[in-house]
Design brief:
Distance between the termini: 30 Å
Mean pLDDT: 92
Strand order of the largest sheet: 1-7-6-3-4-5-2
Largest sheet: 7 strands, mixed
Number of strands: 7
Helix content: 25-40%
Order of helices and strands: EEEHEHEHEEH
Low-confidence stretches: none
Strand content: 15-25%
Length: 168
């Protein structure tokens, strides 16, 4: 897995959290971010269910599962109110950030641009030190994802950098 500093998230609002999230606040945890759109079949059938399984299977581990709603098409029907209903109806319990829309003639959302995403679903794996270690467009095989998450958690524990290893 490669390691480069993960770009900052540029979000306009958050669901399922009282406090806006950013990568520095999540240091000490491995982060799985699922970039999705409500009207994306791959997101609804693969990406979101996988993120929900990871959140359930790794509950209690030094892992944060985050959704990034990154709309690059059909902007008029995928606003915050529709997203809030979608998150509720699909039982998404992890925090979901709304990627800030692009400006000017570039409709691509800002976080999507920063990561060079080419579409959705895109899965981002960020290590406990805040480095982007893997970025996968489309289906991320469950076994490979589980192995990658396990390796990053083990790496963080060995380095003493997990949130569980840090004093409050």
């Amino acid at each position: 897995m490669t390691a480069q500093p993960a770009p900052a998230w540029q979000t306009s609002a958050w669901l399922n959290t009282n406090t806006p999230l950013d990568l520095p606040a999540l240091r000490g945890k491995v982060v799985l971010a699922c970039a999705f759109q409500m009207l994306c079949p791959g997101c609804v059938n693969t990406g979101i269910p996988q993120a929900k399984r990871v959140a359930s299977l790794f509950a209690g581990a030094p892992l944060a599962v985050i959704g990034l709603h990154t709309v690059f098409q059909h902007h008029d029907v995928m606003g915050p109110a529709a997203l809030e209903t979608f998150v509720h109806e699909f039982g998404i319990r992890f925090p979901v950030g709304i990627d800030t829309p692009g400006t000017g003639h570039d409709p691509m959302p800002l976080t999507m641009q920063a990561y060079g995403m080419r579409g959705t679903p895109t899965t981002l794996l960020i290590d406990a030190e805040g480095r982007l270690r893997r970025q996968v467009l489309g289906k991320y095989d469950d076994l490979v994802l589980g192995s990658d998450i396990g390796a990053l958690i083990t790496e963080a524990k060995r380095a003493g950098t997990t949130a569980a290893d840090k004093p409050e």
